[in-house]
């Protein structure tokens, strides 16, 4: 009989080792899944994890894509991790991402075709504010009425998607687009475009923002009282109140920050890689970022690494779809599996596994 | 706009159909939460049920087998959640989210090649003379089997929780798992059973979407129905009768906005489409604003990890 | 008398601790047998083995001459063993009848069960309404639910784990009468306690446990309380001492303090009024759940009150939050060590930061000074003899006594003008408890105003200058502690509430 025994102190070794173990287990299980789909598992795994970076033919195209995909994931996940640490569950980042993009693009389209240095900064501010405001809805409802923020933030994703559709079809439709849905392409509007900062790397302002967010979050969580209060609230809410934390203020801060970062990610995406507001503008970054946050153990550096890994599976997935005919959905299931394994092996951090005598329990 | 195209009787009949998937999922989740477990994976289980049911029904040309397969598939999926949260003591919120993300991916994978197919029709239940009752017969007594199963389930869950020993034990486990353990009840086993039941209900609800309500398969077709089911459990204050009310209210809003779209109301379609979600949020706010009641009716151990230390 | 239960060589080891080592003793039918020992002596593990919650590693038990190996509590109950838990195994949101039904193997139908509850509760002088929700009952009434649940099963052996910690002295009297009646009817009682006077009045024999081993067995009536204490602790204990001091000016002035409880089944404070002078210890007694947590929260600043209802040297402070109060030297140590006073998974350094940030200057413009925090944690560890490998260890890795010393020490070292503590020695071994009491006395000696909320009346009588009691959220007027009788204290705590005297005629 296998028993779990609580460790007196969380294991430092397993804290670092569990994400790696989870990745390995996912590769094994994923390999089985791919084999079941009739693909060579080793080849599939290699195509997903190795080829995007080192394939002689495709790597030059796909390597920059790594930062393009990882940037928004990291930026959103950093914001989410603050709330998750405090037990505040914003799972509507996808919606905040959309609203950030709509607000940012709205500013750009309002100024079009003015070429001025301040257009892009204004867009950045509008994007952050949009995401922030969308996240303030669950935040205020929670502080005011104790409404469950999980459900409200999630339901608002569907509302945001409808708004996106109405924008793409109505207000923001490209007047020169011949009636097709979708806005003007911001990449063709230099004052608003979020182009590559260093050619051939995929590095754009959103990626830079993600790196800055990682550093700031690290300092906040390890060196600042607010970060301490966030961690404390997540571990024992009562102790946090005793330490003088005002729970409502923390809810507003955490949801607001994660909303603003998600909004920024949306803005950088619409002004850069995506280029325009369209019906299918959102790609599920807001949801994948949840996996990134957990896979990174809610730690800024971990999130950085997890974001890169998850970005890799996106590109690798595309590549596998193109080269092996692996369905796109397989990658989505693969990502979900990764989170399962991570949550499952996480038990090793806080518990010891004993195999031995039966216990009446 | 032509409002006269909206027939209130047809509206009622179709709201029952629209509400059934959510009602089934909400009833399952209600039992799970009564046992003290918060499973946020309803959406993932529903969509898995939707594709399992659809695929099996298409392959066997039997809707009944489809519904059974949906229940089995979603229950199996829910067991992943059960093992992770009850045995490996994982965080329930995170695991529930993982279940939803995984379910969406898995269903899209399983659903390859089923897009655009038509499922075998699910027959109406013949209620004999009841179906011939003027007006009421058409509205209330000419639905398929699952609509009545869902209504029977409301009564069954209500009676189980209120009058049976099983219900008492279930409530006790959700209320104070340490005390239940001290009295010798198998907390983990009871919760696993509840989780499986919740999974089966969500799966049945999902299959109803793909086999009856829509009826076809598209990726991500649940479109938040699982989340709305979760909201309805809160709205219902964990009472089966009120879950019925909540689901039918929601069904009514959905059907009404669809009818308004069809009638050509001078509002962009997207704003009508978002109304069910907005109304769900509004209802959540109203329910949670009543602090005292919400605190009293929620199972005290909801979402808490149980680990027998002795 | 015939032997009911024989225990032979029971041993149970957990990683790092041997909870019970070769424990043997016997209980006769109708005997009231005391199991005496300090916190951590292994009493709980032993009774959990008898009740089938824990399986022994070795040794055996014999009940009625047959081997007895309960695999689960259900088997124990079927064999006639019943248990009243220290932390009640009750369900707040369910009613009395449902709670009782859950503890029975084959409960009768609802209506019959309600009738049986009324019948048995009347016979033993423990009136109970089967339809009331348990969360609304007082601690004493909740215990009645547990006892009746056991009595309905006709137990041969009734295990009672620290039953009097939640009762007023009058209620204790009634409980003892009930237990004597049961014993005279032939039910054996295994009575677990560390309260010596109780054991001397009630029990026929006693087995004394120390560090998991039986160190002695005796007839408690033939021993003095001091002798029993020495057996239990293994050495002579220093009782805290203080030179008589004259209290100074009024520091803390609480007048008409009313606060709504934050939790659904909590007790709101109603018009609480008292003062504490510099150099004085005010002891606040009362049965658990009568507003203790709420009073601590109101004084620590976690719960907001009307500004004027709490004053520090005349300045209204009722509306200030916890950190604003720390700034003016009002400090507090709540009852729940893990999860309220300290964060279980955080290191001692982080826990030192938890309340020490302001007064110890552990931050600059919000940025943390980790070396300073570590130094402060180390200071607490040294000054209060906290046994731990170092400040990097998680709070939950400490024993109850050591963590409590850390929590109290953390506040005392911050030089409070007012210190409020709730249950400072609950679940703490005797040596640590003595050290904590001494620290509180020394603090008062140096001019601080100290409020000690506790359910341990002996402790309060030992260290308080004045005494008051909480009863349903109201505070009795404080009286000088010296010379108070148990009878008077009991009345201040609300007497026997609505208990009746059992009709003992068996």
Describe this structure in words.
The complex is a heterotrimer of chains A (361), B (310) and C (506). Chain A has 361 residues and is an all-alpha fold. Chain A has helices spanning 12-36, 41-49, 51-54, 59-85, 93-111, 119-145, 149-169, 205-223, 225-235, 237-242, 247-271, 285-295, 300-324, 328-345, 347-350, and strands at residues 2-6, 351-355. Chain A has a single domain (38-326), classed as ABC transporter involved in vitamin B12 uptake, BtuC. Helix content of chain A is 70%, strand content 3%. Chain A is globular. By secondary structure, chain B is mostly helical. Chain B has one domain (3-297): Orthogonal Bundle (ABC transporter involved in vitamin B12 uptake, BtuC). Chain B has 14 helices and no strands. The mean pLDDT of chain B is 88. Chain C is α/β, with parallel strands linked by helices and 506 residues long. Chain C has two domains: 3-233, Rossmann fold (3-Layer(aba) Sandwich), CATH 3.40.50.300; 250-492, Rossmann fold (3-Layer(aba) Sandwich), CATH 3.40.50. Chain C has helices spanning 43-50, 73-78, 96-102, 110-123, 139-151, 169-184, 196-202, 225-233, 292-300, 322-327, 348-356, 370-383, 400-412, 430-445, 457-463, 486-492; strands spanning 3-14, 17-28, 32-36, 58-63, 66-67, 81-84, 157-161, 188-193, 205-210, 213-218, 250-259, 269-277, 281-285, 310-312, 315-316, 330-333, 363-364, 367-368, 418-422, 449-453, 466-471, 474-475, 479-480. In chain C, strands 13, 16, 19, 20, 21, 22 and 23 form a seven-stranded mixed sheet that branches. In chain C, helix 11 crosses helix 12 and helix 12 (370-383) crosses helix 13 (400-412). The longest helix of chain C is centred in the middle third of the chain and has 16 residues, at 169-184. Chains in contact: A-B, A-C, B-C. Chain C: Keywords: ATP-binding, Cell membrane, Membrane, Nucleotide-binding, Repeat, Sugar transport, Translocase, Transport.
């Amino acid at each position: 009989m296998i028993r779990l025994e609580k460790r007196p102190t969380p294991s430092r070794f397993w804290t670092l080792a569990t994400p790696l173990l989870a990745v390995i287990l996912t590769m094994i299980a994923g390999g089985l899944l791919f084999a079941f789909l009739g693909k060579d598992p080793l080849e599939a795994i290699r195509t997903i994890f190795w080829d995007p970076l080192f394939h002689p033919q495709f790597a030059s195209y796909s390597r920059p894509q790594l930062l393009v995909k990882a940037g928004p994931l990291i930026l959103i996940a950093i914001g989410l991790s603050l709330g998750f640490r405090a037990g505040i569950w914003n799972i509507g980042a996808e919606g905040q991402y959309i609203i950030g993009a709509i607000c940012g693009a709205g500013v750009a389209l309002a100024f079009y075709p003015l070429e001025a240095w301040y257009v892009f900064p204004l867009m950045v501010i509008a994007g952050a504010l949009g995401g922030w405001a969308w996240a303030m809805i669950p935040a205020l409802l929670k502080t005011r009425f104790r409404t469950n923020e999980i459900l409200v933030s999630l339901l608002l994703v569907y509302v945001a998607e409808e708004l996106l559709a109405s924008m793409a079809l109505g207000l923001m439709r490209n007047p020169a687009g011949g009636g097709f849905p979708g806005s003007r392409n911001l990449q063709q509007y230099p004052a608003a475009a979020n182009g590559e900062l260093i050619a051939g790397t995929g590095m754009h302002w959103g990626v830079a923002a993600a790196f800055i967010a990682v550093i700031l979050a690290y300092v906040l969580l390890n060196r600042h009282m607010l970060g301490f209060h966030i961690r404390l609230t997540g571990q024992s809410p009562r102790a946090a109140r005793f330490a003088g934390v005002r729970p409502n203020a923390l809810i507003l801060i955490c949801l607001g920050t994660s909303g603003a970062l998600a909004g920024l990610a949306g803005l950088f995406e619409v002004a850069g890689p995506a280029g325009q507001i369209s019906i299918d503008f959102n790609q599920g970054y807001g949801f994948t970022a949840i996996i990134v946050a957990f896979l990174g153990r809610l730690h800024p550096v971990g999130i950085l690494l997890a974001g890169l890994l998850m970005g890799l599976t996106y590109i690798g997935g595309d590549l596998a779809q193109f080269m092996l005919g692996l369905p796109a959905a397989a990658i989505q299931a693969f990502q979900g599996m990764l989170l399962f394994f991570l949550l499952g092996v996480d038990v090793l951090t806080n518990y010891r596994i004993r195999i031995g005598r039966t216990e009446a329990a | 706009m032509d409002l006269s195209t909206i027939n209130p009787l047809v509206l009622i009949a179709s709201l029952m159909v629209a509400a059934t998937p959510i009602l089934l999922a909400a009833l399952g989740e209600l039992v799970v939460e009564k046992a003290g477990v918060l499973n946020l994976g309803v959406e993932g289980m529903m969509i898995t049920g939707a594709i399992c049911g659809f695929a099996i029904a298409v392959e066997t040309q039997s809707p009944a087998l489809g519904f059974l397969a949906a229940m089995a598939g979603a229950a199996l999926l829910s067991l992943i959640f059960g093992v992770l949260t009850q045995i490996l003591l994982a965080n329930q919120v995170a695991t529930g989210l993982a279940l939803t993300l995984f379910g969406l991916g898995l269903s899209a994978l399983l659903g390859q090649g089923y897009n655009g197919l038509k499922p075998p029709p699910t027959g109406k239940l013949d209620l004999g003379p009841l179906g011939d009752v003027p007006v009421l017969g058409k509205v209330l007594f000419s639905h398929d089997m699952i609509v009545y199963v869902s209504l029977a389930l409301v009564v069954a869950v209500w009676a189980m929780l209120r009058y049976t020993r099983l219900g008492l034990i279930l409530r006790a486990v959700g209320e104070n798992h340490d005390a239940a353990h001290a009295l010798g009840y198998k907390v983990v086993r009871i919760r696993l059973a509840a989780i499986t039941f919740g999974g089966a209900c969500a799966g049945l609800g999902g299959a109803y979407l793909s086999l009856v309500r829509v009826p076809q398969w598209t990726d991500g077709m649940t479109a938040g129905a699982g989340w709305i089911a979760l909201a309805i459990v809160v709205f219902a204050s964990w009472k089966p009768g009120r879950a019925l009310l909540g689901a039918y209210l929601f069904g009514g809003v959905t059907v009404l906005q669809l009818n308004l779209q069809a009638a050509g109301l001078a509002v962009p379609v997207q704003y009508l489409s978002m109304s069910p979600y907005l109304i769900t949020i509004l209802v959540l706010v109203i329910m949670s604003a009543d602090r005292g009641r919400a605190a009293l009716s929620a199972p005290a151990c909801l979402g808490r990890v149980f680990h027998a230390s002795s | 008398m015939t032997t009911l239960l024989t225990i032979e060589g029971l041993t149970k080891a957990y990683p790092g601790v041997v909870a019970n080592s070769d424990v043997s003793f016997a209980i006769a039918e109708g005997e009231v047998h005391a199991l005496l020992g300090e916190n951590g002596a292994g009493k709980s593990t032993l009774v959990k083995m008898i009740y089938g919650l824990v399986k022994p590693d070795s040794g055996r038990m014999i009940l009625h001459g047959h081997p007895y190996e309960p695999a689960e509590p259900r088997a124990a109950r079927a064999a006639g063993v019943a248990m009243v838990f220290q932390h009640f195994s009750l369900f707040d949101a369910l009613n009395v009848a449902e709670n009782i039904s859950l503890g029975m193997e084959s409960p009768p139908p609802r209506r019959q069960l309600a009738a049986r509850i009324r019948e048995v509760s009347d016979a033993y002088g423990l009136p109970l309404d089967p339809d009331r929700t348990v969360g609304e009952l007082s601690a004493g009434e909740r215990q009645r639910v547990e006892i009746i649940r056991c009595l309905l099963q006709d137990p041969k052996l009734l295990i009672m784990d620290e039953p009097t910690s939640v009762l007023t002295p009058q209620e204790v009297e009634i409980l003892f009468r009930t237990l004597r009646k049961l014993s005279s009817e032939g039910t054996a009682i295994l009575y677990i306690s560390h309260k010596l006077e109780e054991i001397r009045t009630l029990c026929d024999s006693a087995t004394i446990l120390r560090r998991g081993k039986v160190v002695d067995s005796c007839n408690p009536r033939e021993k003095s309380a001091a002798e029993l204490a020495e057996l239990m602790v293994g050495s002579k204990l220093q009782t805290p001492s203080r030179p008589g001091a004259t209290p100074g000016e009024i520091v803390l002035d609480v007048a008409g303090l009313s606060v709504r409880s934050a939790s659904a089944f909590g007790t709101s404070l109603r018009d609480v009024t008292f003062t504490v002078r510099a150099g004085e210890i005010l002891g606040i007694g009362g049965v658990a759940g009568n507003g203790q947590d709420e009073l601590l929260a109101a004084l620590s600043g976690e719960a907001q009150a009307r500004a004027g209802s709490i004053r520090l040297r005349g300045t209204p402070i009722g509306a200030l939050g916890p950190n604003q109060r720390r700034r003016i030297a009002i400090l507090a140590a709540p009852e729940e060590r893990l999860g309220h006073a300290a964060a279980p998974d955080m290191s001692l350094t982080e826990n030192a930061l938890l309340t020490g940030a302001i007064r110890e200057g552990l931050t600059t413009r919000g940025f943390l000074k980790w070396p300073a925090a570590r130094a402060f944690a180390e200071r607490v560890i040294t000054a209060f003899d906290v046994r731990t490998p170092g400040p990097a260890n998680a709070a939950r890795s400490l024993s109850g006594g050591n963590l409590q010393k850390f929590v109290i020490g953390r506040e005392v070292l911050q030089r409070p003008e007012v210190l409020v503590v709730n249950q400072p020695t609950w679940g703490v071994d005797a040596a640590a408890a003595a050290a904590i009491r001494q620290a509180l006395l020394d603090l008062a000696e140096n001019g601080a105003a100290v409020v000690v909320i506790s359910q341990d009346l002996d402790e309060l009588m030992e260290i308080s200058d004045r005494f008051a009691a909480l009863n349903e959220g109201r505070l009795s007027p404080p009286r000088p502690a010296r010379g108070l009788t148990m009878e008077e204290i009991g009345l201040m705590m609300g007497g026997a509430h609505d208990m009746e005297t059992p009709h003992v005629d068996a």
